[in-house]
Specification:
Blueprint: H1 2-22, H2 27-39, H3 44-52, H4 54-59, H5 63-66, H6 89-92, H7 97-104, H8 106-111, H9 115-131, H10 135-152, H11 172-184, H12 201-214, H13 216-229, H14 232-235, E1 236-241, E2 244-249, H15 251-261, H16 264-286, H17 302-320
Antiparallel strand pairs: 1-2
Helix pairs in contact: 2-10, 2-11, 2-16, 9-10, 9-12, 9-16, 10-16, 11-15, 12-16, 13-15
The protein binds zinc ion.
GO molecular function: hydrolase activity, acting on ester bonds
Protein name: Integrase
């Protein structure tokens, strides 16, 4: 009897960690969707190339999450703990990485997340890849860039209270960016007009981060208010998945929260699609508008294929060594 109870407890504990740690940002679904939709915003000169490779751009939208624990320096590219810098974070944080390093030191910046600067780096790298007409690099960097942009538009990626752990709201991260889109995104209007050239990408990127951060108050507040109105039995539901009991937010609680947020998840998802398309387009213009159709016939070399396979295998092996209870959003 005791053993049975213990095993139920362990499996509950395990599923708890599984639920609250394995959910990636925006959910894999969200990241893929954002990259895919951004392709349709590109001008005809770019669209042929991107559409031919839309499956790659879509599937690889989640690569940066897959290598978060495997590659040193990766984890901090997905967030920024703005509250660490106080109320005037946007006034004191420099727009550009080199100035930020001079002011705060690189180690300290990395500790608290670097997403606004890293998106600039990726934009620059994409421009260079376009300039040198390197098909493989263009696709890889464009897919990555869409991922970081999507993360930067999630309010909980802009705070040290990234999973509600400081306010008794543990689990809110995956709730907002995975559970809500899973339930409601079918009704979102994510079709946005043509990509716009960004004269000052750094400013545009920071504006997006500021916008996401401004939405953080309601993300936390509404969940707290609703929790007071719902009993724990009403707030959560339990489902069996692969013989494991998984706890998730109930449909009723999710619906009430989604309504309280009044379109916020949809707005942030649209913002991610918009900025991804804009930065892809801006990189292409800044690279001198290379003729991408010339790259369509460029075959992937055997060496490239081998390298990609080895990379994927390497991540997998390293991931197995990671503590299973490590939170998805380790930010220190
Ligand atoms: Zn991420």
């Amino acid at each position: 009897m005791i053993i049975k109870k213990l095993s139920i407890f362990i499996s509950l504990l395990f599923s708890f960690f599984l639920f609250f740690s394995a959910n990636p940002h925006w959910g894999f679904w969200g990241h893929r969707r954002i990259n895919r939709l951004a392709v349709y915003r590109l001008p005809p000169e770019m669209q042929l190339f991107f559409k031919k490779n839309i499956d790659y751009i879509t599937e690889n939208a989640v690569n940066p999450d897959r290598r978060r624990y495997a590659v040193v320096g990766e984890a901090e590219r997905h967030f920024i703990d703005l509250d660490v810098y106080g109320d005037s974070a946007f006034q004191i944080l420099p727009l550009y990485w080199n100035l930020a390093c001079e002011k705060f030191g690189e180690d300290s910046l990395r500790k608290h997340g670097i997403v606004p600067w890293y998106i600039q780096t990726a934009t620059f790298q994409l421009t260079e890849a376009m300039r040198s007409k390197n098909k493989k690099a263009i696709l890889r960097i464009a897919a990555d860039l869409g991922h970081y942009v999507a993360d930067a538009n999630v309010p909980l990626h802009t705070t040290k209270n990234y999973n509600g752990q400081l306010t008794g709201q543990l689990g809110i991260h995956a709730f907002w960016e995975s559970r809500l889109p899973e339930l409601f995104a079918d009704d979102y209007d994510l079709w946005i007009g043509r990509a716009q050239y960004q004269e000052q990408p750094a400013k545009t990127i920071w504006k997006a981060v500021a916008h996401a951060h401004a939405a953080l108050d309601s993300v936390l507040l509404f969940e707290k208010q609703l929790t007071e109105k719902f009993s724990p039995e009403q707030k959560y539901s339990y489902t069996q998945r692969n013989n494991i009991l998984v706890r998730s937010y109930s449909t009723e609680f999710s619906t009430a929260y989604h309504q309280a947020l009044a379109g916020q998840v949809e707005r942030q998802m649209r913002a991610a699609v918009r900025l991804t398309g804009d930065l892809w387009y801006t990189s292409w213009v800044n690279a001198g508008q290379p003729d991408l159709s010339l790259l369509l016939s460029q075959e992937e070399s055997e060496e490239d294929k081998k390298q990609a396979a080895a990379e994927a295998q390497g991540w997998f092996r390293r991931l197995l060594k990671v503590r299973t209870e490590a939170d998805d959003e380790t930010t220190d």
